[in-house]
């Protein structure tokens, strides 16, 4: 009997050392918790493996090719009308610097 490269004599020795260290009361609890941990690890690895296989199958599936649609017919647009623009000439505007009193005089003169 050879488990993980450990023979029967080595396995018995490990069990005796564990019994001496942990005692007869704690040994069943430790065995139970180790069994639960190993079972949880196995469940997680199975779930990971199934997810990996599912994703690999999705990647391997051929994607359906869409039917090629006919090209649309060209649309003819009417010719644009000729638009003429008139340029209106305006006299050049020069900035004027005025004092506040001059501005007040100009606005009151317009109101009257």
TrEMBL record:
The chain crosses the membrane at residues 6-24. It is found in: Cell membrane; Membrane. GO terms for cellular component: TAT protein transport complex. Keywords: Cell membrane, Membrane, Protein transport, Translocation, Transmembrane, Transmembrane helix, Transport. One of its GO terms (biological process) is intracellular protein transport. GO terms for molecular function: protein transmembrane transporter activity. Its main location: membrane. It is a single-pass membrane protein. Forms a complex with TatC. This is Sec-independent protein translocase protein TatA.
